[in-house]
Amino acid sequence: MRVLPVRALPKPERLRYLFSFDFDDTLFTLGGPAEERSIFFRTMRMLRSQYGVLWGVNTGRDPVYLREGLADMFRDDAEAFAPDFTVTMERNVHLADAEGRLMPGAAWNDDCAVAHDSLFTRYGGMLESLMGQLESRFSGLGLRRQDNDAFSLVVDDACGLDEVSCVIQDTVGPYEEIVTQRAGPYLRFSHRDYNKGTSLSFVASRFGIPSSHVAIFGDGHNDLDAMRHLPEAFRCCPSNAAQEVKDMVARGHGYISPEPRTRGVLDGLAHGVFPYFGMKAEVLKEDI
């Protein structure tokens, strides 16, 4: 995450709020309107200067894949600036340093790596056997392993992933340390203590921001961990969110946008986050 075409802005004098965005099909959609991205960055600049808002990306993408996605998001946008933090693979944290470069959150990432090395050492054989069985049983769904992550799967058939998930849960259910992270067609085995929620809590604590001043935007199943783990945070999802996410948003402080993807984020900011936190952002409201 160190090499990006832009850097994070200097921190506000007073850090007051933290906004966390899922990336794919929430904050960013490849080929989406460039103007929506420009509105987002103009809005975040204003929120930063007026309200001390920091922002970041909380995603299942690995660091290399996220770097590529952020480069696409920043492209040809003079307003763009890098996030203050990223969470990748639902668990690895990078924080912007004084020069705006995203650097590993060393203590968190080291502990995370040790926990996963131990997990996969103890249960790797069982998981390998399970994944082999799944590849054979669900070959018609286009099920395959990800090349860059030994303990993750891709399933071309989104509905079929529901059935795959049930089989997986029957096998790993007795092992309390093992959980699955699911987003779209992707499913990853992970340690229960490291997810979008625990990672975001770590980030918020490093910035000294209480969970009641956090806003969480997401559309996929792996965003549920963040919403559960920070129940005092404001929740927002676009119209394309999974039904389980919409249900979670509806049960707490939250807003379900009638708009999809990036436009849903902008709508969620204007009609959900701003009134909830008492922020005035007329420029954004006029833009959308």
TrEMBL record:
InterPro entries annotated for this entry?
HAD-like_sf, HAD_sf
A GO MF annotation of the entry reads: hydrolase activity
Q: Please give the superkingdom of this protein's source.
A: Bacteria
Keyword set for this entry? Answer: Hydrolase
Q: Does the keyword Hydrolase apply?
A: yes
Instruction: Return the protein name.
Output: Sucrose-6F-phosphate phosphohydrolase
Recorded source organism is Akkermansia muciniphila (strain ATCC BAA-835 / DSM 22959 / JCM 33894 / BCRC 81048 / CCUG 64013 / CIP 107961 / Muc)
Upper classification of the source organism reads:
Bacteria, Pseudomonadati, Verrucomicrobiota, Verrucomicrobiia, Verrucomicrobiales
